[in-house]
Every structure is written in structure tokens, then in C-alpha cells.
Amino acid sequence: MVAAPRRLMVLTHVVRSALAHGSIPRPAVLWLVGSGALALGVLVYLTDRSSSHSLMLPHIGFQTPHRWFGAVGGWLPSFVHALAFSLFSAALLAPASRWEIGACGFWFAVSAAFEIGQHPRVRGPLVDAMRHGLGQGPVARAFENYFLSGTFDVGDLVAAALGAALAVSILHCVRAQRENHRAT
After folding, report:
1. pTM of the complete model beyond 0.70
2. Is the pLDDT of residue 65 over 60?
């Protein structure tokens, strides 16, 4: 386990060096970091959760007798979702601070909406409205099952907010590295 933090430090140094020298384009950095975060979230679903907890992943989990991520696995997907999709969106947008922060705010709002949709006081009326508006197709049923089977957790809201905040921080660092590179 000691090697993992060391590898992370090496990877961070490589990415910073590449950014400082301008050898990796900004969108590529954002896609790489976002993809790494998303892979971590997928790993939580494949190892720590039953396949019934996933709306978009196939039922191929390889459950182990122990949870790989422990208590962190409970909120890590919410954190990763807001982080990864904020970075993916920012990579597609013009590198302007207001657009990047807007993308982070949007993905936090999406995460928050899905979490709030699982609240016991919200899920019943929400599912009724979805049935009325979307009918009974497979997509509508998947969302219905998500909201009815899910558990509202304030920790997931906090995790999504922290993921979006980390995305803002990463975007700021990428911008600062680029500006430092141009100034030299």
C-alpha cells in the first residue's frame, strides 16, 4: 500500500511537468483526469455494490467477501460523478473561467437532483410524474427503479459538492500552469 501514494505523486509530477512544458493539450489533461476518476467510481460499483445499485452499468460485478473501499465506497461515486463529468464538460468548452465553473455547478446540480429524488418525501411524487410524462418504457422503468430503490444520503450531497469543488480547483491549476508556461 505504500507504493500507491508514491505512484500517485509520480503521476502528479508527470502531469504537472507536461502541463508546464505545454506538451499535453488542456482538453487531454481534463479527459485523462476525469477518466481516471470515473474508472475509480466504476470500480466501486464492480467491487463493493451489487449490480442492482447501478443505473447504467451492466450486471457484471465481481463481489468480494469484503468491501475494497470500505465506508468511502458509500459516497465515492457521488464525488467521482461530479468531478469527472465537470472535467469532461470543461474539456469541451472554451477555456473561460465562467464556463468551467458553470459546468461544475451544473454537474453538482444533476448529482443533487438524483440524490434528492431518492428522498422518501420526494420519490413517490417524482415517480408518479415520470410515469405520467415518460410512460412505462425501459428508460422510464430504469429511472423509476433508481429513485424507488435508492437511499437518500446527505453525505452523497456533500461528496458531490466536494467533487465539483475539486474540479474547479483542478481547472484553476490547469489554467495557472498554462498561464505560467505562456509567461516564460
Report:
1. yes
2. no
